[in-house]
Known about the structure:
Order of helices and strands: EHEEHEHEEEHEHHEEEHHH
Largest sheet: 9 strands, mixed
CATH architecture: 3-Layer(aba) Sandwich
Strand order of the largest sheet: 3-2-1-4-5-8-9-10-11
Number of strands: 11
CATH superfamily: Ribokinase
Strand content: 25-35%
Bound molecules: 3-hydroxy-5-(hydroxymethyl)-2-methylisonicotinaldehyde
Distance between the termini: 12 Å
Amino acid sequence: MSYKKLLTIQDISCVGQCSLTVALPIISACGIETCVLPSAVLSTHTSGFSGYTFRDLTEDMPAINEHWKSEGISFDAIYTGYLGSTKQIDYVLDIYSSVCKDGGLLVVDPAMADNGKLYVGFDMEFVEAMKALCAKADYIIPNITEACLLTGVEYKTEYDRTYIDEILASLIKIGCNNIILSGVSYSPDKLGVVVYENGKYSYYEHNREGKDCHGTGDIYASSFVGALVRGKNAYDAARIAADYTVECIKSTQAEDNHWYGVKFEPSLIKLIEAVNE
Ligand code: PXL
């Protein structure tokens, strides 16, 4: 196995089991050297907590990039998640063009919205800038809300395959080639992920767990990236990530006071086994 080095760019929410505090352990567990560029530092994530601190690190990014260039540092893959400002997206594009190896992968989770709504602090200017980043990516990992915001397709909670095909076609039109669309449900007790790669549609379906937990998108994206960079094909990476995310939700469900995140740690062993199969 070749030893891969990945850079992930997203925030540190000190408490809340999301973004870097899940990406770093999950991708490391997949056997990949995981370097980080924090986009912002928050005392907690922004969903359900109030009065959190937010230190925007946008202006640190160009100097970090320059230092890496001067040291000849480069990465096999770059994976971006929650970004702290619209300007950061331009800096991320600079970082990608200067420190991603030729043939290296860019994976973008346009983490900005869920359940039909933008997260607090984001606006349509951010969405516009995110489109440009998604157009450069080898893979994007949106949920349906994010895909709708990127394309202007109306957000729906009840739909069929025609609606999903419309979303995929609209994403392709804005320049996205390979799409991992999460949270797609064609029947009430099932949920799944669409993998659209090189013009081919596939769908991995699993049971819908009772409770919707915060942070599942980050767990899904991190485990997908970990499995992909370890050499799994996109469908297998999407399947491994879905199975792992479901396991994590099952570990969390019984606990009413664990509303802010997903207990992803107890199931890491299963993820490690799956990526090493
Ligand atoms: O899980 C996505 C996410 C990441 N980072 C921060 C967030 C959220 C979602 O609410 O608030 C800071």
